[in-house]
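Hi support team,

I submitted a single chain yesterday and got back a structure, but I'm not sure I'm reading the C-alpha cell output correctly. Could someone confirm the output below corresponds to the sequence I sent? I've pasted both exactly as they appear in my results page.

Thanks,
R.
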Amino acid sequence: MNFRKTLLGGMLAASLSLGSGIALAQDSTPMASPDASPVAEPAEGDIVMGRFPLSTPDGAIAAYVEAWEGENGVTFKIESTVDSGLEPGTHGIHIHEVGACDASGDTPYASAGGHFNPTDTTHGAPDDDDSHAGDLGNLEVNDDGTLLYVVTTDKVTLDPAADNSLAGPSGSALLIHAGEDDLETDPSGESGDRVACGIIFRSFEPAMNATPPSAEAPSASPEATPAS
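Hi R., thanks for writing in. Yes, this is the structure output for that exact sequence:
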C-alpha cells in the first residue's frame, strides 16, 4: 500500500476552520500553507476538507488538522505552533471508527470506538499491507510542546460511497494517544489513553456529542479562509 509520512519540527503559521466541509482545490492554493513545508500542500484537483481541532479531555485545543485527498490517498497534516499541552515524546495516532469525541465518563473519547478497520485486519504499522486502515503510526511532540506531522495513506478515502470511506454513517475521528504505538500489538499497539480527539466526519447518530473546543484558542492560529 502507498504510504508517505513527513515529521517536521518548529514554529509554523496555523489557522482554524471548524467543520468537515469539502471542496476541490483550484489553481491557487486553497489554504494557507507554511513556506517551510511545501510537501504539505494539496495539489490542483485534490479534495480538500476544512481544518478541524484536536481537543484534550478538558476542552483545550492541542493541535489543528488539515486533510485532503489526492492521487496518492488521504493526507493528514497535524500541527501545533504553540505548546500543545501534550507530553513531549512519541505518541500513537489513529483514525477511529466513530465521529464522536465525548470526553465524559471514566474513559475519555470511548465514544470514538476502535480503530477504523473496514477490512477486519490486525493492528500494525501503517505501511503494512494487512494493518488497520486507521493505523497512522507515531508523531513526535517537541520539548516545547509544538508538533508537526504529515502522513498520507491510500487505505482510506473521503468518498462517501466507498467501503473504506471516512464519511460513512458512523463518521470517523482522529485520536492521539498518551504513549508510543509499538506498531504490532493488536488492537491498539499498547499506545495508552486517548489524550486528544478531533472529528473528521461527525457520526449520524445524534446521541454522539463532541467535546467543544476551548474558547481559549491559541493566538497564533487565526480563523482560516475556507477552501474554494
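A quick pointer for reading it: DSSP finds no helices and eleven strands in the chain. Let us know if anything else looks off.

Best,
Support desk
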